[in-house]
């Protein structure tokens, strides 16, 4: 309503009842000046086509150009008849007001010229003897029982009144006294010398009163009035006089204004219509979506000025918005005709007035005045006057809309108060939008009082057009999509008692719909049969949570397999689970759960304590569960109400029964959908065992599944590891002082996890994958049925990184071995397979080598030493064997009749100081044949014996070189058979790597400590030593946290670890190395401090 100027009189509510003044009041000057002053009157008058046509013909008749003497203006009450009469009255009396600029503004050029032309022509006629003779049926016209006393005579009849007004009473005096109708000639004599314009309004009221008079003469006289108008109409033909007469009827005469005798109206109509030349005129056109001329009349009556430029800007905005056909559909836009009114305002107002028994234009103006005043009181004015601006709760409007008919009184009472209450609107996500949508539906449909949908009742697209207003949507931060969403909410809502919905059509009906029956039955169930509601709710929640099926949704997206279906219990009262290793879930349908109850469920079994205490989770409501009971009771009520519909609604017809039945089904389906949508958000409290107590957390609903909410909460709070690595498993177990430093059966490990509440919930699959990873990373091994599953034994040198044997599964009977134990057990198994022998005529040799690189390998047997428990890898070679490739080597050949022998060295890798003499034993052994000679040759060094008959032994003397070198030895038999071998000599730097500090290492220089795994072990290192730290830190809780260190000082690393552990409330797993920037002598003090790290780290030491 910006850039609009409202007439001052619109602001005066005392004028609401004077929107259509009486003809008599205007003539007597007792009406408001806007009706009595011609210029003010025309400023607020829209010249309809009918008015201009009547005025044009009236002028032609008065000027003698044609003889159109009788004009009949018809409409029901409030249709503009009197206003048309007043327009003619003012136009003849003051034609100058028709050419006034204020009168002519806002019309099209053609219409301006037409009005101006009429004004000028009437002005020219002013010199002629034109006499306006108003005949106002509600005024004093004289009648037999109450004549008008003019002193010299008394007027008893209408013709006597006309004779008096024309100053020719004597011509009709006898007929007046005798109550007889003057003949045609008498009336023509009466009119002679005058151009009379008869303005006859409300004459039916005059006749009707006479018919109902208690005076016999009045009643007799009444019968002659229609005859008089017949005679007068005939007398007017061919004269310069005119009669304009209003008739309170529809054009076809089928409908007469309420309160009048239909026969009187039709008799009068027939009397004047019989005369040739009498024509019927409607005061205005009302056809079309923009309301014809009604909207123009409203504009003129309400607004003094409408800014055309601003109008175009607003219309352009709406056209752009309306281009969204997905929201608004396709329709004929008519804003340019109706602005500043929304087209639906005009359409809705017409429906209310025409179907509500109101006074057409009169009440349309009256209602609009009230609407405009109400809008002007608001802080933010709208860009358009919308249909929902007609607020039926406005007390002034309420009386107009509902006060004239008992049927509509029901709508203005119960329907309005119950279904359009503020409490109802609050239930929607956009309450302000819901209110205007529902108000529009109400205004648009209540006048029809229909139990079934009718053409033109609101649908989604028409609702969108009827409620979208730019400023309203901006004020409440609404989006176009909110319209459809809110309509969908309304469609699903079962809280309305009088709103009916069918196939996307909405309307109100004053007879309560099935919603009321359902609500009553629901309350009955909640009050008198709550036990059955409890049982039904348990059934619904079980179906939802356990079976993964909603009441309406066929399948609930639920990929959680953590809890087996058989281990999920849904009930109101706690149920005791069997004491097994399985993870279990109790869903309690209640909101009054305390910690003591949770403790009993999780920890107690029978009269004692549960063995598998780390297995039970409890989920329960975090807020009032009453809404779930209400939803459940409503679903049950729908089922019960279905059987009662026909009895209640059959009297209204089968279609109504079907509509109400459909509504029950719709309410039932929507309520089931509401259950599916809502239930997961109720069960958000999750309780689980922790540190021998009960931990209670809130789940954040991330899905529509209760199980997913529970699972997500356990993940979020770290009770279930999101991803379990072997390092993570080590960390968790370290927290409860369990390590993989000694063998443990897989089933025992599972049992520890299920019994210790300090540990997380770990599934069998998670645990197996972590163990597989540990084997793959060669951190642990598996002993299964006497076999050792640890390092891979290759048949040839592979082209991929070394890793443990791949495992398809982990069995309960599998024994998890520590790294060194798994290695030594595996080595013992494979060394038993080594051989060097002749079988028949075949030479067979099997041995194992450990490849350090592609070009360098060492015989496995030389890397081990024999103990009471069998072979063990020498400490200094442990890392080499674990990280190297163990390759099974074979040699096999046919030796025929030749002699065969073997060449063996007692060692192949020797460390020593450069220049140091070392001795290697050389053994020549016959494999086939005896007493044959074998010669020996070496690249470097000397042999005690370089030839001899087999078998024999000799010693190879050689010096350690300055750099690492490999030397060959060759053996050649007298048959030409050649055998070779080699030895690698490594100059020793006196640096060793050991897993334990031993007494013989005292006095040595400490260079590095590698592989520290925990912050506790790191804290053993004294801070006063000059060291740098490198490595990684990992924390496994709800997420995987990792940090890298590179050459940081020890105190900084300790600080960082302490802070991170504090923030994340978890102990860190480490894999760090300590590099001493200065050589540290291993004295007694250092020895005692660091020996705590024996078997937990690797010490790199330079011997002295």
Automatic annotation (TrEMBL):
Name of this chain's protein: ATPase (AAA+ superfamily)-like protein
Source species, domain of life: Archaea
Pfam families named in the record: DUF499
């Amino acid at each position: 309503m910006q850039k609009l100027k409202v007439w001052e009189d619109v602001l005066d509510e005392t004028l609401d009842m004077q929107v259509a003044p009486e003809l008599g009041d205007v003539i007597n000057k007792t009406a408001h000046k806007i009706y009595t002053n011609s210029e003010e009157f025309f400023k607020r008058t829209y010249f309809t086509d009918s008015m201009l046509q009547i005025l044009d013909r009236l002028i032609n008749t008065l000027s003698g150009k044609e003889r159109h003497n009788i004009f009949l203006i018809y409409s029901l009450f409030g249709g503009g008849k009197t206003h048309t009469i007043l327009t003619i009255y003012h136009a003849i009396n003051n034609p100058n007001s028709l050419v006034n600029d204020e009168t002519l503004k806002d019309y099209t050029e053609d219409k301006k010229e037409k009005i101006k032309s009429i004004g000028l022509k009437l002005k020219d006629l002013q010199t002629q003897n034109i006499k306006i003779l108003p005949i106002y049926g509600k005024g004093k016209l004289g009648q037999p029982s109450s004549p008008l006393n003019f002193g010299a005579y008394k007027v008893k009849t209408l013709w006597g009144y006309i004779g008096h007004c024309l100053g020719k009473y004597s011509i009709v005096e006898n007929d007046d006294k005798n109550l007889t109708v003057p003949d045609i000639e008498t009336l023509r004599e009466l009119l002679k010398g005058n151009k009379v314009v008869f303005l006859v309004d409300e004459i039916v009221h005059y006749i009707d009163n006479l018919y109902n008079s208690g005076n016999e003469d009045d009643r007799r006289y009444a019968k002659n009035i229609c005859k008089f108008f017949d005679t007068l109409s005939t007398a007017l033909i061919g004269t310069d006089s005119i009669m304009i007469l209003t008739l309170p009827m529809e054009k076809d005469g089928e409908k007469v204004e309420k309160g009048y005798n239909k026969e009187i109206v039709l008799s009068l109509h027939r009397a004047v219509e019989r005369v040739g030349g009498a024509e019927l005129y409607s005061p205005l056109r009302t056809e079309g979506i923009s309301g014809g001329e009604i909207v123009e009349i409203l504009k003129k009556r309400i607004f003094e000025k409408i800014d055309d430029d601003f109008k175009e800007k607003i219309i352009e905005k709406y056209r752009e918005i309306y281009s969204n056909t997905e929201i608004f559909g396709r329709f004929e836009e008519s804003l340019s005709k109706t602005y500043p009114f929304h087209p639906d305002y005009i359409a809705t107002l017409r429906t209310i007035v025409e179907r509500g028994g109101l006074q057409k234009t009169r009440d349309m103006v009256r209602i609009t005045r009230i609407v405009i005043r109400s809008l002007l009181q608001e802080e933010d004015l709208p860009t358009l006057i919308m249909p929902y601006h007609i607020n039926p709760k406005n007390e002034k409007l309420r009386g107009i809309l509902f006060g004239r008919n008992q049927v509509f009184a029901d709508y203005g009472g119960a329907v309005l108060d119950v279904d359009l209450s503020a409490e109802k609107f609050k239930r929607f996500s956009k309450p302000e939008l819901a209110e205007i949508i529902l108000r529009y539906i109400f205004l648009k449909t209540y006048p029809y009082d229909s139990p079934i949908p009718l053409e033109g009742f609101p649908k989604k697209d028409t609702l969108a057009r009827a409620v979208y207003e730019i400023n309203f949507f901006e004020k409440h931060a609404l989006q176009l999509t909110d319209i459809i969403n809110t309509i969908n909410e309304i469609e699903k809502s079962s809280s309305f008692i009088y709103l009916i919905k069918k196939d996307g059509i909405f309307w109100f009906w004053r007879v309560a719909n099935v919603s009321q029956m359902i609500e009553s039955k629901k309350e009955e169930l909640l009050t008198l049969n709550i036990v059955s509601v409890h049982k039904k709710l348990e059934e619904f929640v079980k179906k939802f949570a356990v079976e993964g099926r909603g009441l309406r949704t066929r399948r609930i997206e639920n990929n959680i397999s953590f809890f087996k279906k058989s281990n999920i219990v849904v009930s109101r009262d706690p149920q005791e689970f069997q004491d097994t290793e399985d993870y279990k879930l109790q869903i309690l349908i209640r909101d009054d759960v305390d910690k003591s109850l949770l403790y009993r469920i999780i920890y107690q079994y029978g009269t004692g304590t549960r063995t598998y205490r780390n297995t039970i989770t409890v989920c329960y409501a975090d807020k009032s569960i009453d809404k779930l009971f209400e939803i459940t009771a409503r679903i049950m009520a729908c089922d019960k109400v279905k059987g009662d519909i026909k009895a209640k609604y059959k009297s209204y017809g089968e279609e109504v029964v079907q509509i109400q039945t459909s509504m029950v089904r719709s309410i039932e389906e929507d309520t089931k959908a509401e259950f599916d949508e809502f239930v997961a958000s109720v069960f958000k409290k999750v309780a689980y065992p922790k540190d021998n107590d009960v931990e209670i957390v809130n789940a954040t609903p991330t899905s529509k599944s209760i199980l997913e909410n529970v699972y997500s909460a356990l993940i979020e709070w770290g009770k279930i590891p999101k991803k379990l690595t072997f390092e993570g498993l080590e960390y968790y177990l370290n927290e409860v002082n369990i390590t993989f430093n000694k063998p443990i059966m897989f089933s025992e490990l599972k049992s520890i996890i299920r019994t210790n509440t300090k540990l997380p919930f770990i599934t069998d699959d998670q645990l197996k994958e972590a163990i597989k990873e540990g084997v793959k990373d060669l951190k642990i091994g598996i002993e299964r049925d006497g076999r050792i599953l640890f390092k891979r034994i290759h048949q040839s040198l592979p082209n991929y990184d070394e890793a443990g044997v791949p495992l398809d599964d982990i069995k309960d009977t599998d024994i998890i071995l520590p790294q060194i134990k798994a290695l030594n057990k595996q080595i013992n198994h494979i060394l038993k397979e080594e051989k060097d022998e002749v079988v028949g005529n075949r030479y067979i040799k099997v041995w194992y080598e450990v490849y350090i690189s592609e070009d360098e390998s060492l015989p496995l047997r030389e890397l081990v030493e024999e103990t009471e428990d069998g072979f063990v890898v020498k400490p200094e070679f442990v890392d080499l064997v674990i990280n190297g490739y163990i390759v099974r080597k074979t040699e096999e050949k046919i030796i025929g009749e030749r002699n065969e022998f073997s060449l063996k060295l007692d060692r192949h890798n020797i460390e020593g100081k450069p220049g140091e003499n070392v001795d290697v034993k050389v053994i020549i052994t016959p494999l086939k044949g005896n007493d044959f000679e074998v010669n020996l040759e070496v690249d470097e060094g000397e042999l005690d014996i370089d030839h001899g008959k087999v078998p024999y032994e000799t010693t190879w003397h050689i010096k350690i070189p300055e750099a690492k070198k490999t030397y060959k030895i060759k053996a050649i038999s007298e048959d030409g058979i050649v055998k070779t071998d080699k030895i690698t000599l490594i100059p020793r730097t006196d640096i060793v790597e050991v897993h334990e500090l031993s007494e013989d290492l005292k006095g040595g220089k400490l260079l590095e400590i590698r592989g520290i795994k925990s912050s506790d072990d790191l804290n053993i290192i004294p801070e006063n030593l000059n060291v740098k730290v490198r490595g990684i830190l990992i924390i496994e809780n709800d997420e995987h946290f990792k940090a890298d260190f590179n050459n940081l000082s020890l105190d900084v690393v300790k600080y960082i670890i302490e802070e991170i552990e504090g923030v994340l409330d978890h102990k860190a797993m480490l894999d760090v190395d300590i590099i001493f920037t200065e050589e540290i002598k291993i004295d007694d003090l250092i020895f005692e401090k660091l020996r705590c790290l024996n078997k937990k780290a690797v010490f790199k030491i330079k011997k002295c």
